[in-house]
Design a protein that fits this description.
The structure is a single chain. By secondary structure, the chain is α/β, with parallel strands linked by helices. Helices cover about 40% and strands about 15% of the residues. It has helices at about 100-105, 140-145, 155-170, 195, 200-205, 210-215, 235-245, 250-270, 275-285, 290-295, 310-320, 325-335, 340-365, 370-375, 380-395, 400-420, 420-430, 440-450, 450-455, 465-470, 495-510, 540-555, and strands at about 5, 10-15, 20-25, 30-45, 55-75, 75-80, 95, 120-125, 135, 185, 220, 485, 525-530, 560. The strands form 4 sheets. It has a 5-stranded antiparallel β-sheet, with helices on one face. Strands 11-12-10-13-14 form a 5-stranded parallel β-sheet. A two-stranded antiparallel ribbon has the order 1-2. Helix 8 (about 250-270) crosses helix 15 and helix 21 (about 495-510) packs parallel to helix 22 (about 540-555). The longest helix is centred in the middle third of the chain and has 25 residues, at about 340-365.
Length: about 575
């Protein structure tokens, strides 16, 4: 390149401006390139005359990225994304003309003859290099792919995305408006509410067209101080390990087993099958000598006699929930008459052993195991996980229990600290034991995607989603909410990654169960505002794993990712 300008037939053209274009003719096509860099290098010129001195000269270079191709289409030409015929060495390079710009920006498109599936018709801004031309996109092509909106702080990234979405609802698509849009925004700054869901007083001040547009979007806001709640029992093992950070050697296996026992107990209650931790307790009672059993059933106070409500009796009461006969037999073994009499205990022990063998056979037939339930979205009591189920998991190790309990003590302390910290306990619902909230997976997914009122509006249940849905003001409570704003700006950093990763995984797993013929019929757009706040750039993390999977696999299920 010898200069920054070229004199053409109609004008003088600037050819070395960053964000401008160059044209590379390849056969009958013209490849469009975007100038990304202009550099200058000094080069030495050598002369055969040894008596002369040669000074270095400056050579100027342009770096450009190939964007698309202007190709023949019928009697005219059209700009298409992508490059199919690549230039060769010594290929000529042309400056961009007004004719090329009209093709690139589609400036002369007739708004009454838009082909919505492939035309670039949705304006999102103005070209910085060519201020007379609007930059347009094709939503069908933009939203079925992943995209990134980049820029410095305050450069207008959020405004750009808001403009894209709001413009999307202004068009009449062959006689109808958008009705099946599902856009989920993870808002880390709390700035999207006013754009899509203004306060009633502000909404009334808007002009009629804007009010109608916002009514079509019918956005839904989920957030605010202590409002965002994600049930902890929907987390899988990877989520728990990332949140609680157990050591790999001892703490992780114990925690894994404890969560399995906790979830298995709920499954066992439904199936009336004795859970593993109680089976271990029964085996411990059968293996006790009369003297050991006496120590577990007596009062070590002044009387040194039998204690009502002793440890063995409590185990029997817990077992009665699953099997009345077995529970009553254990309670009988620990009563005041039998607790210190080996002769009377023997037939009761035989009865307990016979009942346990029978239950084991039934257990094997139904094959309910803690390993199968560890990642299932089954409710369990987090408070009991910190105490009873951790103890049961330690007991199952069989040897060195005191040593293991010592290693697990720091994990138990961390788990209890989360329970006592409302910044952690409220968003993850760690203290929630309400029956109504235990089986809400389908309602929660519909809630995230804005379809709760569409499918569950007739519910009278008192679960937290229904209660929140009744309280939050919306433009039209009977319609689908096509934009869901999840305001996570109030979440502490310690749970931000866990919550966003869990929500992303739930959405991905929901659409992955669709039949192949139904994939893509339920399009979902996930918008990650300020993604760097919860997706580590270098370190492996649960959020990075989830959203990388969405980036790789999401398109075939109809999910697009915008960051």
């Amino acid at each position: 390149m010898k200069g920054a300008y070229k004199s053409g037939i109609n004008d003088i053209y600037e050819i070395a401006r960053i964000n401008s274009y160059l044209i590379i003719p390849v056969g009958s096509d013209r490849v469009v390139t975007l100038i990304t860099r202009v550099t200058m290098k000094e080069e030495m010129e050598f002369d055969k005359n040894i008596t002369s001195i040669s000074l270095p000269t400056s050579a100027r270079y342009i770096s450009a990225t190939m964007l698309g191709t202007i190709t023949k289409q019928g009697d005219g030409e059209k700009f298409i994304q992508g490059v199919y015929n690549f230039p060769t060495l010594d290929n000529p390079v042309w400056y961009v003309t007004e004719k090329d710009l009209r093709h690139i920006f589609d400036d002369k498109q007739d708004i009454n003859h838009i082909k919505f599936d492939r035309d670039f018709y949705l304006p999102i801004g103005t070209s910085p290099a060519f201020s007379n031309y609007k930059v347009k996109i094709c939503p069908d092509q933009f939203f079925v792919k992943h995209a990134a909106i980049l820029g410095n702080t305050g450069s207008g990234k959020s405004c750009t995305f808001t403009s894209i979405v709001r413009n999307l609802f202004r068009y009449d698509y062959n006689g109808s408006k958008l009705e099946n849009t599902h856009i989920v925004i993870f808002d880390t700054n709390g700035e999207y509410r006013d754009a899509f869901f203004p306060e009633k007083s502000n909404f009334e001040k808007l002009d009629g067209n804007t009010q109608q547009e916002l009514s079509l979007i019918n956005a839904y806001y989920y957030g605010g101080n202590e409002q965002v709640k994600v049930p902890y029992w929907l987390m899988n093992w990877v989520d728990f390990r990332e949140l609680l950070r157990p050591s790999d050697g001892t703490q992780a296996p114990v925690l894994n087993r404890a969560i399995g026992l906790a979830k298995n107990e709920q499954e066992s209650l439904a199936q009336a099958i004795l859970p593993n931790n109680l089976k271990v307790d029964i085996e411990g009672i059968l293996n006790c000598s009369t003297e050991d059993l006496k120590k577990r059933t007596w009062d070590a106070g002044k009387t040194w006699g039998w204690k009502q409500g002793n440890e063995v009796e409590n185990i029997g009461s817990a077992i009665k929930k699953y099997n009345t006969s077995l529970g009553d037999a254990i309670i009988e073994l620990s009563n005041q008459t039998n607790f210190n009499n080996a002769f009377l205990q023997q037939p009761i022990r035989e009865k307990i052993n016979s009942l346990l063998v029978s239950l084991n056979d039934e257990y094997i037939q139904k094959q309910i195991t803690s390993e199968q339930n560890i990642d299932l979205p089954i409710w369990f009591n987090y408070q009991e996980l910190c105490s009873r189920f951790i103890d049961a998991a330690i007991a199952q190790e069989g040897t060195g229990n005191n040593r293991i309990a010592e290693f697990v003590s720091t994990l138990r302390l961390r788990m209890n600290s989360f329970l006592n910290d409302k910044r952690m306990a409220i968003p993850l619902m760690l203290k929630d034991n309400k029956e109504e909230n235990r089986n809400i997976l389908s309602q929660f997914i519909a809630f995230l995607l804005g379809d709760f009122n569409r499918f569950f509006k007739a519910e009278t249940s008192g679960h937290f989603i229904n209660e929140y849905n009744k309280q939050i003001p919306v433009i039209d409570a009977k319609k689908t909410h096509q934009v869901t704003i999840i305001d996570v700006s109030q979440l502490p950093f310690e749970v931000l990654e866990t919550v966003t990763a869990l929500l992303g995984r739930i959405i991905l797993e929901f659409v992955s169960y669709f039949m192949p013929e139904n994939r893509g019929k339920y399009p979902i757009v996930i918008v990650l505002e300020e993604a760097q706040n919860y997706i580590a750039e270098k370190n492996d993390s649960v959020a990075k794993t989830v959203f990388e999977r969405i980036a790789r696999e999401g398109r075939k299920y109809g999910i697009s990712l915008i960051t």
